[in-house]
Write a structure and sequence with these properties.
The protein is an alpha+beta fold and about 350 residues long. The protein has six helices and 20 strands. The protein has a nine-stranded antiparallel β-sheet, with helices on one face. It is globular. Helix 1 crosses helix 4 (about 200-215).
């Protein structure tokens, strides 16, 4: 009886999510655990227009602020990182030199509340703050639980609300999901939280996924582009693919999982405004500190080996222009050029 009740509730939640979800964009993040103690985190960026993304390299020792006046939070970066920007006003994705990976995904239900007398942080700097300040997920959970700032989210350049939630993973496979719901910070912390998509909120995604686990992936998997269906597929395939010992196969496995959760190029659906086409994917090998990037409209994957970067204090921030969708292949660390960091949203 209890199992039937869970299934009914899951279906009702799914229907509500479909019916009331406002216009939003979609992404998928999955943490793959390989056989050689290698953790590989992959994500898709699903968006309905070009994000004008670029690669950025930020060294340690950078003086930062939250980008929101009149009282922004200030910090000095403890760790260097490589990131992918969105509109060059936000860090959408990245990995720091300790192997901590941050993925920022859209969440229509995000509500950051009021400042409550605390310093402000632009939502565009949320992922970067984590990469700059923490070596692992446990540190991040402890630090962010204290809420040293409150988030301010101005509208995006296209007029959309900048609602987002944040996922972190580290070299041990530890994982955490951070969401602001009704002005309150909600954290899900543990290795079991290895998948994240979009609406509904994470507390409602979990029973939906439990429903599909009970059915079993070999019996039936949901095949639509909705966030809850992508969550179920990514969760199933993370457990189904082998735990490869070979690093190349491990990266390929992570890519295969998130490609399975991708939305084909150009797909739109007026009945599902929270579904958008996949425009790029990243895969972070957190053992070798290699950051891979795949544009949907380019034929090749390219990557950066962080050991080839100068992340020491006093080094200059660097940029690799991806606007215009250049066709790149192989290891591209030598292609970065010095650049002034962008201002936060």
């Amino acid at each position: 009886m209890a199992k039937k009740l869970v299934a009914v509730l899951a279906v009702l939640i799914a229907i509500l999510a479909i019916t009331v979800a406002p216009a939003a964009q979609a992404c998928t993040r999955a943490v793959y655990k390989a056989g050689d103690a290698r953790i590989v985190t992959g994500r898709t960026m699903d968006w309905y227009e070009d994000l004008y993304s670029d690669f950025w390299v930020f060294p340690k020792g950078m003086k930062r602020n939250g980008g929101v006046e009149p009282d922004p939070i200030n910090w000095v970066s403890k760790y260097g990182s490589i990131t992918t920007s969105a509109y060059d006003i936000a860090t959408a994705d990245g990995m720091n030199e300790e192997g901590l990976v941050a993925n920022v995904l859209y969440l229509a239900e995000a509500n950051y509340g009021n400042l409550d007398g605390k310093p402000a942080l632009s939502v565009g700097a949320w992922g970067q703050y984590a990469l700059d300040n923490y070596a692992n997920v446990a540190e991040a959970v402890e630090g962010l639980s204290a809420e040293p700032f409150r988030i301010i989210a101005a509208d995006l350049p296209n007029g959309f609300s900048a609602g987002a939630h944040l996922s972190l993973s580290d070299v041990t496979g530890d994982s955490a999901i951070f969401e602001y719901i009704d002005g309150k910070l909600v954290i899900h912390h543990g290795v079991e939280y290895d998948v994240m998509t979009n609406s509904p909120i994470y507390d409602e995604q979990l029973p939906l996924n439990a429903y599909w686990k009970e059915i079993g992936g070999l019996t039936f998997l949901p095949g639509t582009n909705r966030a809850s269906d992508r969550f179920a597929r990514a969760s199933y395939y993370l457990g189904a693919v082998p735990k490869f010992d070979d690093p190349r196969e491990a990266v390929a496995a992570a890519f295969s999982v998130i490609r399975n959760a991708s939305v084909p190029l150009g797909i739109t659906d007026e009945a599902q405004p929270n579904v958008s086409t996949t425009i790029w994917r990243t895969v972070s090998d957190q053992k070798s500190l290699t950051y891979y990037f795949e544009s949907t409209i380019s034929p090749n994957v390219f990557w950066v080996e962080m050991d080839n970067l100068n992340l020491q204090e006093g080094a200059k921030p660097m940029k690799l222009e991806l606007k215009g969708h250049p066709i790149l292949v192989g290891e591209v660390s030598a292609m970065f050029e010095p650049a002034e960091p962008f201002p936060w949203l």
